[in-house]
Specification:
single chain; globular; disordered N terminus; alpha+beta
């Protein structure tokens, strides 16, 4: 390889490495417009996914995936659909057509009053002072349920893992037990 082609190769490699570093730096920069903020969880739903909306409405808006069988414990006609990014989780529908959202289960990508997946019980209680802690599910399911009453900020439920002491699921209005 001649000196001239070696110099040209090194210059091209350096330029590509610099452009790659610049792209990585801007993608990781805080406050970047491309970074999606966590969706807001309310008693009515999360982001644009609301209780009572039909599967057709949510699918047309690109908020959920395909309709699929739901929890076997609910019977043969139960249906659910996965939430689309940036949300993680799924929605559960009514048993009859048109399928309407009855429950929303969040595994990530959303927060209620700044509290999301990974929060502890003290953090939940700080954001929702009327939160009620239910430890009856610890032995069977390995989670502590923290329920928010209607007059305490809405009908929401948080599932806090017994071992890690961190929230793993958020349910609107409740968390369904299927697994």
């Amino acid at each position: 390889m001649s000196t001239r082609s070696l110099t040209r190769t090194l210059a091209t490699t350096a330029a590509l490495a610099g452009a790659g570093a610049l792209a990585i730096g801007t993608a990781a920069a805080p406050g970047n417009a491309g970074t999606a903020a966590a969706k807001k969880i309310t008693p009515a739903g999360v982001g644009k996914v609301k209780l009572g909306k039909t599967h057709r409405q949510l699918r047309a808006a690109g908020l959920v995936g395909n309709l699929r069988p739901g929890c076997e414990l609910g019977g043969p006609d139960t249906r659910s659909a996965r939430l689309r990014a940036p949300l993680k989780g799924f929605v559960t529908y009514t048993l009859t057509s048109p399928r309407k959202v009855t429950d929303i289960t969040i595994r990530g990508g959303a927060k209620a009053r700044g509290v999301g997946v990974g929060a502890t019980i003290p953090q939940i209680k700080a954001a929702f002072p009327k939160a009620r802690v239910n430890r009856k599910t610890e032995d069977v399911f390995g989670i502590t349920l923290v329920r928010i009453p209607k007059d305490g900020g809405g009908r929401l439920s948080f599932a806090v893992d017994v071992d890690t002491k961190k929230t793993t699921l958020i349910g609107i209005p409740r968390i369904g037990f299927c697994e």
